[in-house]
Amino acid sequence: MKIVSWFKLLWIFHQTRRAESCPHCLTMKTCVVLLSVLSLAAATLPNLVDLANANNATTLTQFLATAGLADVIRDQGPFTIIAPVDSAFAKIPSDVAANLTANPNVLANILQYHVIKGEIFTFDLKSGEVLTSLNGHAIRVYMNGGQIFFNQAKVVSMDVLQGSNGVIYLVDEVLSVPEGTIDQILLNPDYNISEFLELVKVAHLEGVLNRTSGQRYTLFAPSNAAINSLDPSILQKIKSSYSLTHRLVEYHLHRGTLHEKSLDHNGRITTAYSGHYISVTVGSDGVTKLNNVATLQETDLEAEDGVVHVISHVLIPSSLFSSIVG
After folding, report:
1. Which of 27, 41, 218, 310 has minimal CB crowding within 10 Å?
2. How far apart (Å, rounded) are the C-alpha atoms in residues 115 and 83?
């Protein structure tokens, strides 16, 4: 029984109808009785920790205990929990999992990213909206083909689990906490994409990719190796021209967020370079290629203002080819 959905319906009912003018409205006495019944029903529901334990999310509850968050999730709220099932946590390498267990503060930050204040039901969700996690980071909502995604994680059951102090969505992936803005991800030496940041600076687009609100983007960032594989004269020609660089960088940007799971079929992607598209092809081997040349080397690097994918080649739109190569 979805307790809060009934509360919401009751609230809407009384906001739109007035008892003194509508003979079909519920009387205040009836409302009190209904609320009492609903409150009694809510009291019989399990708390969120017990609910997760009973629904294939035992690893999550173990991590909550390790991070010192179990009591908060059990006793406070209401919360909406995006709960990775046990098989989702099993995808984490054992050494990484051991490191998380040994660092409760880091673990707590990851777990808080899976918690949202308040109860959010499926009828509350809108595709493309951005929710705010308990630790203040953005979580994007997608709906596609009747399925719901939070960032890259797919909801595995459309039956939202109702607890006494909130609701749970079971998902198939552990969410990655945003690592800063897109600009800050480009600066991270672990990803070897700093050369593209130099092009972003020449194009005067650094500020566009360093925001925590407003438009969100998907950036297909060529690796340092991809940029350095260009003929030096071509690279110099690009860097010496604001116009060429600006359009080239825009061509690697998509307005909106596309996670790897959105790139699993043939099609094309709009870009910030108006009227120009990136083709997506998926071979029989399951490998995704952009413009038939670039493969995805690292995917789903979460940013506050979007998502970054590291790619193997620089993408050059046909309209710029003669200017760059000629």
Report:
1. 27
2. 9
Sequence-separated contacts (24+) of 14-20 with Cβ below 8 Å: none
Tokens standing for residue 135: 């630790």
Distance CA 309, CA 209 (A): 14
Contact 212, 305 (CB under 8 A): yes
Confirm if 301 and 179 have CB atoms less than 8 A apart: yes
Angle at 275 between CA 301 and CA 307, to 5 degrees: 10
Query: Tokens at residue 263, please?
Result: 């790139």
pLDDT tens digit sequence for 212-253: 888 899 999 999 999 999 989 889 999 999 999 999 999 999
Alpha-carbon distance 219 to 41, whole Å? 48
C-alpha to C-alpha distance for 46 and 40, rounded to whole angstroms: 13
CA 17 to mean position of chain CA atoms: 39
Burial 22-48 (b: 16+ CB within 10 A, else e): eeebbeeeeeeeeeeebeeebeebbbb
CA distance 303 to 253: 14
Q: Which of 238, 231, 269, 226 is nearest to 251 (CA)?
A: 269
More confident residue, 231 or 21: 231
Q: Which amino acid is at 279?
A: S
pTM exceeding the 0.85 threshold for the entire prediction: no
Record the tokens describing residue 36, joined without a space: 């009492």
- Residues 84 and 174: beta-carbon distance below 8 Å: yes
C-beta of residue 249 within 8 angstroms of C-beta of residue 205? yes
Q: Coil, helix or strand for 12?
A: helix
